[in-house]
Structures are given as C-alpha cells and as structure tokens.
Amino acid sequence: MNDSVIPELYPESEYNPSRDVVEGDGRISIEDLLNPLSEKPTYGKLRKRELQIKKNTRTVHAPLSKAVQSKVERTTAYERSKKDVTKWQPIIQRNREAPTIFFDENVNLGFSTVGAIASEFEPRTEFEKKIAALVYDDKVVEAHKMDGSKLLEMNQVSIEDEKDRQNRIAKMRSLLFHHEMKKKHIKKIKSRTFHRLLKKDRLKAEASQIQMDPEAAKEYAMKRERERAEERMTLKHKNHNRWAKRIIQRGLNSQDEGTRAAIAEQHLRHAELTRKMHSMNGSSSSSEDTSDEDEDENSAASDQDRAYKLLGKAKDKTMKVLEEEDEVPKSGLLSLPFMRRGLEKRKEEAVEEANLAFQEYEDSLKKLENSGGSEDLKAALTSGRRVFGPAKAQISGTSIKEKSDNCYEGSDSEDDLGIGKSGNMENMESDLLHNEDLVVMQQETDTLQKSVFKNIDDIIENPGPKTTYEVSMFVSDSWKKAKNKNEDTAMKKSPKLTGPVRQDIKDTEKELREDSDTDSEGQMVDGILSSVSKVPYELPSQEELIRLTFAGDDVEDDFEKDKQEILNLENPEPEKPLLLPGWGQWTHIQEKKGLPSGMLKKHEEAQTKRAEALKKRKDARLKHVIISEKIDKKAEKLHTKSLPFPFTSKEVFEQSMRVPVGPEFNPASAIGLLNRPEVVKKPGVIIKPIEFEDVNPHEKPEQRSGGDKRKLKKNSRIGGKSIKKAKAGGKS
Amino acid sequence: MKVKVISRSVDEFTRERSQDLQRVFRNYDPSLRPQEKAVEYVRALNAVKLDKIFARPFIGALDGHLDAISCMAKNPTQLKGIFSGAMDGDIRLWDLASRQIVCQFPGHQGAVRGLTVSTDGRSLVSCGTDATIRLWNVPVTTLSESDDLPKNIVEPASVYVWKNAFWGVDHQWDGEHFATVGAQVDIWNHNRSQPINSFEWGTDTVISVRFNPGEPNLLATSASDRSIVLYDLRMSSPLRKMIMMTKTNSLCWNPMEPINFTAANEDGNCYTYDARKLDEAKCVHKDHVSAVMDIDYSPTGREFVTGSYDRTVRLFQYNGGHSKEIYHTKRMQRVFCVKFSGDGSYVISGSDDTNLRIWKAKASEQLGVILPRERKKHDYQEALKKRYKHLPEVNRIARHLPRPIFKASALMRVMADAKKRKEDKRKAHSAPGSITTQPLRRRRVIKEVE
C-alpha cells in the first residue's frame, strides 16, 4: 500500500488532475495525517501499527479484469451445479433399465364415494336453491332423524283419493283393452267389402277432417304436391311435357343443336329406363336360359350331343308356350264369350303347329341317332385303341345321354300331344346299346391281350438299370426279396434261364386271361424260383461282380443330369415359339412366312439371356459342383438383412425372438409380465415431474416408492435372472 | 385291476357367474405347437397393419383465435385447461373436454410471446412484444354456464411495464419465481414489480427459456446468437454457454431425467444434450424438413413432441433417431407451439392458421373405457410389434407422408448422400489420418464457452 493518501472528490482523470500534477510534489504522507493526532490517547497505538506496516511491506495484485473474473466465476459455478446434478444419475439409470415404469399408482382421485361428493355440494342456481330449501327443511330433516317413521305421517294420503286414483286407472286399462280387442277383431275379418267400406269411411273421415282442420288440409296438400312432383319427375323423359311436344311439332331439324341434344338425351334416358324395366321383369328367366346354355356348351362332348340338346330345348320351349296359352282370363274384355271363342280357335291352330314342330324334331332326332351311332360303331371297331378306359367312358356317356333323352320323350308322350314314335325310338336305342356293349367287350379283351404281350416283351427286350441291382441282391443269397417285380426279368439276363421263363410267361399269359395280373405275377415268380434252385451256381470273379454291381450306375451322368435339372429349374429355358394358326398373323401369311419375326427374335433374346445367366453362375466353371443360387423369397422376409441396432450378437437377437409371448403359448400368470408395455399410465391422471430420492446404485433391485403421490418402480435384471414382482399378476 | 378315470374337480370347473368365461386348460409344451413363431409373426404383421388402419390421431380443432397462435401453457393442476396466446395479443383459456373457450384475457397491445402458469394453477403469467408482463388470476372453470353467457373476461391482477420486449417466460416448478427473456434473462417474483435478478451474457436477444422441472433452480435459454446457455438461480452468474451452427428455437428439459434437455433447432433436427457435457449431443433426432419451432416433453419423459415450420407435428422417442409418428392435416399451417397434456395421452398444437388442434399421443390408441381383455389384447399386440419390428415385412409399413414433406425429405436425403460421397472421396484421396470426420452429434456444435 502506498504511504500517501490523496483525498479526491472525483476519480482521477484528465478533467480532474491531481494536486501533484498541478502544484508539484506536495504529497500528503501518513505522518502528516498522524501529527495532528499526537495528543490523543490512542496515538501510540496508531503509531505502532504504522511502524509495523512499514516494516513488512507486501504487494497486493491488481484485481482481474471483469471478463476474466466472471469467467472464473462461471466455471466454478458450472462445476458445482454439475456435481449437484450428478446425483440424478443412478435414478435415471434405474428408470432407463427398468422394463416398465409405472405412473398409475397411489393416485388420489379426490372424492371416492357418492356421499363424499354430495357432502361437498353447494346449491348455486335458483333451481338448486329451491330444491335445497325443500330438502333441508327443518321438518323433513327432523323426520329423517327419527328413523323415518315420521316421514310416513307427513306423507299421509286419504283413502278416498287413493280409491279414486285406482278407479281411474282401472277404467283407462279396460278402455285400452277393449280398444285393442276391437282392433284385433276387425283385423281378423276377411270380407273385402267390409274392408272396402271401412276404407271408404276412413277416407271420408279424412276428407271431412281436411275440410275442418287447417293443419290436416295443409298436410294433405303437401302430400299431393309431393306425389305430383314425383310424377313430374318420372314423366320427364317421355316427351309428354309441353316443351317437348312443341319442339316435336315444329320439327326436330329446325331446332338448334343444344335442343336436339336435349331431346335426344331424353329419348335415350327413356329408352334406358324402359329397357331397365323390361330387363328387371325378364331377368330371372333369361339368366336361367343363359346358364342352361352355358352348361350345355361346357358339357357337350360331341356335335351330336349338342344337336340333341338343341332339339330338346326347342321342344321344351314350344311346350312352355302351349302351357302358357292354357290360361284363360276370367275377367275383363277377354272374358267376353266371343273373345273367348276366338282365343280357343287360335289356340287350336297353335297346337297343330306345335304338333307339326314336334314331328319335325323327332325326325331330325332319329336321323341324328342313326348317323351318330353308326359312326361310333365304326370308330370303335376300326380305331382299336390300346388304352380303352376313356373310350369306354365316352361310349357309356353317350349311351347315358340317349337314355336320358328317352326319358324325356316318355314325359312328352304323357302330355297327350300325339307323339307315337317313342316306341320305335326305344327299340332303336336298345339295339344300339347292345351293339355298343359288345364292341366295348371286344375292345377290352383285345387291348388286354395286347398290353400283356407288350409288357412282357418290353421287359424282356429292355432290362432296365434296376434289374442289375436286383442281381446283386440275388448274388448275395437273399432269396427273401424274390417277390420283387424286377426279379424275374433279372433272371432273363442269364441265357440258361430263358427257356423256362418263356414257358412260365406263356403260362401266365393263359392265367392272365382269367385272373388279375398281381396274382399271376406271384405265381410266375414262384415258378422261376423253383426252376432256378436246381441250377448249379458258380461264384463270379471280383471284377465281374463290380462290373455287375455298378453296371447301370453311371454316377457322373447322373450328376450331370441333376445339375442340368437344377439349372433348368433356376434359369428356366424359354418356351419355343409355337405356330398357332391365326395367332399373331393371318393364317395365309403364316403359311407363307412361318413364324412372325418378332416371336423368333424374342425367343432368341430369351435364350441368349439365359446363356448369359448360366455363364454368370458361380458353378459355371466348376464341373463337379452345384451351387444353388435359388433364393427362397418366402423365407427371406422372415430374416433381417443386418443385425438390428441394440443387439450386438446374432445369438442374443435370436434368443430374444425365441420364446413366444402369446396367451396360447404361456400360462396366464406369465403373460402379464411378458406383454407389459414400457410405460404403464392411466389416462386422466396428471404425471408430476420426478422428485429426488436417495438411491444406492449398488443396492439390490427391489420395489421402491417415490413420493407419496407417485411410485417409480423397477424390475431389473441382475446376473441374468429376472426377479418377478408379486404385483405383476394383479396388474395384468 | 386299476381303472383310470377322467376326473375333474368341481371347484375348478364351476363358474361363479353365468357370464364368467369357462376355464381353459392348456398344455404349454412347445413340442405340441411347432408353429408358434409363425403364428406370432403373422399376428405381428396384422397388428402393424391394423395399427396403420386405426391411426386416426386427430381429435379436434379449437377454433376461435383471430391470429396465429404463438404460445401455449398448460395448467399443471388441471388436465383440460390450456391457455393460448395469439399474435394479436389475445389470450384464451380453453376447455379441452368440451373444446370451448372458458374465458379470455385481453390486454396485450402486441403479440403475446410467452405464457406460463404457476405450479398451483392459480396465476397465469404472460408477456409479449409490448414490453409488459401481466399476471392474471386463473378463474375456477365453470363450464356449464359459459355456453350462453358472453365470454368471461378476466382483468389482469398486475401489469409490469419493462424496458424491452419479451420473447418468452417460464415458471419455476413448485416455486415462486418465473423467468422472462428478451434482451436479458430476468428472474421475477410474483410479489415484486422489479426483477429480483438479471443475467446477461452477450448482447444478443434471448428467445426461449425453460426451467428444469426436476431441478427447479436450473434453467436453460437459447439466444439468437445460436447459443444455449445454462443458469442456476442459486449462483450469481450463468453457468455455461454452447454455440451451435444454427439457432435453437426452443428447448425442453426431460421431466424424468433432470440432467437432459432437448433443443429444437432451426436446421430441422432436435438435439438432446446432457447438461454436464455440452460439447456433444447425446442424440440427434432427425426427420423434420424445416425448422423445428417448439418442443415439449411428455410427462413420462419417454417421448417428446415437436412442431415444425414444415406444417407437421412429430413425436419422437427420447432416445430415437427418427420420429415414430407424424401428424398433419391439410389445413394445418406452420406449427408454432406444441404441448403434451398432463397425463401424457394427448398432444395439443397451435399453428399459424389460428387453430389449436388436439391429437392423440398414440395414433391408433383406442379411446374410452377399455375392458381388461381388450387391454390384454392391446398389450399383446404391442409386445408382438416390438418384437418383430426389425423384420422387413413389418418394418416396411410406414405412415403416409404429405407430398411436400415426402419430396423435401427425398431431396434432403440426396443432398446428404452427395455430401457424404464428397467427404468420403476427399478422405480417400488425402493422406490417411489427415482428414477425420466427426459424428453429427459433435459436428453441429461449434464451441463451448466457459
């Protein structure tokens, strides 16, 4: 500290220079200040202090700049508050790790009972005050206080009043009942006249009411207006209105385009509506017809059938027309006697016509049957198909159809329409059926023979690869497997055995004609075995054995085939363009030019593409390897492309997905825990911000309660073992 | 000879009431149910699809303001009361249940920029560009009478005129202080007409302020110099300043984690910071395509809602990098303020089109009373969704985006990709180790000022 003190009123500056600047060195020292005090009693003390200060002088640094000072201040403040805030760390940690946080516990909802709410109620509005005045009347309160018996006294009703009331009610009830009964009775009456009269009365009453009552009149007028409006709307399309009539009168051609368009639109609309109306009426029958037709088209196997069907349908339709005409109107203009006579005449004519038509149908049917049957016969005889199953089915099918036609004709004859040819028809058909049956029989036998011969011959000529396998079995003395079908053919390889085998086969052929083939096989095999057992057997050499063992086992070839198959499956070969007459081009052009160039080009492109794809395959250069490049798209969507974020290892991720959480797969006690959401809160309950509580981070996890308003609980894992809460079951 | 007979105890199989469900006994042997995983996968897929079908978050709009809504405040003691302030100086109290105005607080001459309610729900503080702070007594809501009568009009309890316009206000949790921001940060007491404390650090305007609800003496502000500053009322000075690359429009503390806060940034991202470690964000929440205007945490602390200038409201997980929901309507314009309801099940947004909108916090949640069996079913579906959310078929089902947002986000993606490509190339063509890329969490922070 300086030893001089300069008393200045204002801080030193250029406008207020200090004295030493103005007057030279005239500094005031401490001595100067102390000297006037030398007579005071405390002078000695002061003097001593001054000397001490002089003796050990210290320099005091200038204060830091404000910016630096505040920076230091801020740093320390930040450090302190950082430290302070860190106390939350364990709580946050706990809450974050908890699988579930609860915000819905120990909620004080205020009033819990009706009584509590009612006790807090204060009347505010006029009405409430009135009610309160009545309820809290002294008398009533008092009456309530004394076990309620006084209430009855206050609530006295005279006997006459009660009787009156009961009588009134009884009268009303009986009136109601009588009214009801009357209505029921009227409803049951079936007489039309009665109801008509009733209706008339009602209308009359209504009419009178309309005259009397302005309300009813208004309503009636409204109703009429509405009806009229509806009619107007419907008539709009009929050109009956004045505007349309005038336009038509003047001639459509003289109108401008807009008017013509409007009229045309009306026409169109009318046509549309009428069409719709008609279609609505006749829709059901037409749909049936179409469905019938469809079925016919679908089911018709041959032209003949279709013809049958068509004829049948025609007949059916004429029948229907006839039946319809039977109905004679009983009332109206048509019921008059002369009209009726005229109608009958016309009907007779129609019946005659129909009969003629029926005759025509029958003739044509006959022709058809003759021609069709002969064709079939020829076909069956000449074609000699080996596979007779479908052919037989066809024939039988037609026969069945004919039968059904037959039935149909029978029904016709019942209708007294004079068809006398059904008998002939039946005869014809029965003959035909007979013939067909015969043909079928012949065919069957033929084909059977042929097939048997062929089978056996084939087997003898082409011993398949499997036969060699069976040979090896035979060599290793396992006779028990001798029942195999291939066994016998294996025998035929050794030339010594051919003779007996041939014999056997001939035998079996004989047997085949009588028995089923499976049985005959067994016998045949037995025969072979018995014959074989007599032949002396020599062990073949090792080489021969190996050769025999792998004779048909071309592994490389098999592998190549397999690979080719897989290639074809994964990169399928493009379809060859097919020449369909009239497809893509006109037929005559196709005949000249062959396939369209575009198709060929496309095919070529597809082929090159395939070749490239095959080249690009990983196993293209590897001859003995198949690397499948097939991606199972269905399985692909069940896998993630990469490991999802919070997981660090595949195993953990898979483990997390492993155990199902559904109610079908877990007992009810576990579901609540498995399915509990992360945050459990109640709607309508205000959640307050967190409050501090001391948490020991190394403490064992258990239930903890926060403040009295809210609980934060935790159910965490330690050492991989989860601690189930007793509360969990109750919550779910 | 021993004869085995099927026996059932009467107690186990008798129902108490005829409405009770018959008990079903199951064999939970997993070998009996080889298809369980497939079944659950399909259920999860269906749950996600149903979730999308039932996602109807919009509940209703509160129409009545005459100008854009600039700020909102929720009543901490009441669920259905929400205050809204508009750009024309109008403040209204709404009843969310009936979607009607309860009363109005007229008086501000300019835009209302800040609204807050004391923790006891009795007094409302508003401030605005007319450089006044107004304290109001919140009326006890009597809804049934407010239908026919002329709108209840409330007079301010006190008006403090100050030197500068205000940009925001927030009330301390469970205390008697509130902080206003504008030219500086002022701490006020309810009973004094002068601020009891003022903080000033730099000369730029402070635009938003939030008290920490868990740690009531801590508050954070953001300023127009792109900074975020922390304060402690117990200290005489601010604590720490951090400057980002873009301005922070608003911020919010996590009510369940008092050390974390999230800043809604002008660049369309939100940044969650640990107050103790400001040089790096803990999480960057991306998805908005324009500036995020406001943010509010759910009282559960597990999610927060943001309103953006791109006309959408989004919901984020507190630790999720991308939004889990997007809310938008054709009529909703720029969103200026958002709030979570006190029970965490609704979201309220105020936008430029003078409407407040109420949304469900969970888009496909079933409202109303839910039976225990329904609750169980919902829980099961949620669990399944959570479990299978990584599988492509489940993952692919996303919310519909409005076309402008979709296009803008696609464009932003392209730009980000290009930038990344360029950086990668630069890195590849320079000496190894000479160029280091910083993570986005750190990249957006310019510096931390002591």
UniProtKB/TrEMBL annotation, chain A:
<feature type="region of interest" description="Disordered">
    <location>
        <begin position="690"/>
        <end position="732"/>
    </location>
</feature>
<feature type="region of interest" description="Disordered">
    <location>
        <begin position="393"/>
        <end position="426"/>
    </location>
</feature>
<feature type="compositionally biased region" description="Basic and acidic residues">
    <location>
        <begin position="695"/>
        <end position="709"/>
    </location>
</feature>
<feature type="compositionally biased region" description="Acidic residues">
    <location>
        <begin position="289"/>
        <end position="298"/>
    </location>
</feature>
<feature type="region of interest" description="Disordered">
    <location>
        <begin position="274"/>
        <end position="307"/>
    </location>
</feature>
<dbReference type="GO" id="GO:0006364">
    <property type="term" value="P:rRNA processing"/>
</dbReference>
<feature type="region of interest" description="Disordered">
    <location>
        <begin position="483"/>
        <end position="523"/>
    </location>
</feature>
<feature type="compositionally biased region" description="Basic and acidic residues">
    <location>
        <begin position="503"/>
        <end position="515"/>
    </location>
</feature>
<keyword id="KW-0597">Phosphoprotein</keyword>
<protein>
    <recommendedName>
        <fullName>U3 small nucleolar RNA-associated protein 14</fullName>
    </recommendedName>
</protein>
<feature type="compositionally biased region" description="Basic residues">
    <location>
        <begin position="710"/>
        <end position="732"/>
    </location>
</feature>
<feature type="coiled-coil region">
    <location>
        <begin position="340"/>
        <end position="371"/>
    </location>
</feature>
<keyword id="KW-0539">Nucleus</keyword>
<dbReference type="Pfam" id="PF04615">
    <property type="entry name" value="Utp14"/>
</dbReference>
<dbReference type="InterPro" id="IPR006709">
    <property type="entry name" value="SSU_processome_Utp14"/>
</dbReference>
<keyword id="KW-0175">Coiled coil</keyword>
<dbReference type="GO" id="GO:0032040">
    <property type="term" value="C:small-subunit processome"/>
</dbReference>
<feature type="region of interest" description="Disordered">
    <location>
        <begin position="1"/>
        <end position="22"/>
    </location>
</feature>
From TrEMBL, chain B:
<keyword id="KW-0853">WD repeat</keyword>
<feature type="compositionally biased region" description="Basic residues">
    <location>
        <begin position="440"/>
        <end position="450"/>
    </location>
</feature>
<dbReference type="InterPro" id="IPR015943">
    <property type="entry name" value="WD40/YVTN_repeat-like_dom_sf"/>
</dbReference>
<dbReference type="InterPro" id="IPR036322">
    <property type="entry name" value="WD40_repeat_dom_sf"/>
</dbReference>
<feature type="domain" description="Sof1-like protein">
    <location>
        <begin position="361"/>
        <end position="445"/>
    </location>
</feature>
<dbReference type="Pfam" id="PF00400">
    <property type="entry name" value="WD40"/>
</dbReference>
<dbReference type="GO" id="GO:0000462">
    <property type="term" value="P:maturation of SSU-rRNA from tricistronic rRNA transcript (SSU-rRNA, 5.8S rRNA, LSU-rRNA)"/>
</dbReference>
<keyword id="KW-0687">Ribonucleoprotein</keyword>
<dbReference type="GO" id="GO:0032040">
    <property type="term" value="C:small-subunit processome"/>
</dbReference>
<feature type="repeat" description="WD">
    <location>
        <begin position="285"/>
        <end position="326"/>
    </location>
</feature>
<dbReference type="InterPro" id="IPR051733">
    <property type="entry name" value="WD_repeat_DCAF13/WDSOF1"/>
</dbReference>
<feature type="repeat" description="WD">
    <location>
        <begin position="62"/>
        <end position="104"/>
    </location>
</feature>
<dbReference type="Pfam" id="PF04158">
    <property type="entry name" value="Sof1"/>
</dbReference>
<keyword id="KW-0539">Nucleus</keyword>
<dbReference type="InterPro" id="IPR001680">
    <property type="entry name" value="WD40_rpt"/>
</dbReference>
<feature type="repeat" description="WD">
    <location>
        <begin position="328"/>
        <end position="369"/>
    </location>
</feature>
<dbReference type="InterPro" id="IPR007287">
    <property type="entry name" value="Sof1"/>
</dbReference>
<feature type="repeat" description="WD">
    <location>
        <begin position="199"/>
        <end position="241"/>
    </location>
</feature>
<dbReference type="InterPro" id="IPR020472">
    <property type="entry name" value="WD40_PAC1"/>
</dbReference>
<dbReference type="InterPro" id="IPR019775">
    <property type="entry name" value="WD40_repeat_CS"/>
</dbReference>
<feature type="region of interest" description="Disordered">
    <location>
        <begin position="419"/>
        <end position="450"/>
    </location>
</feature>
<comment type="similarity">
    <text>Belongs to the WD repeat DCAF13/WDSOF1 family.</text>
</comment>
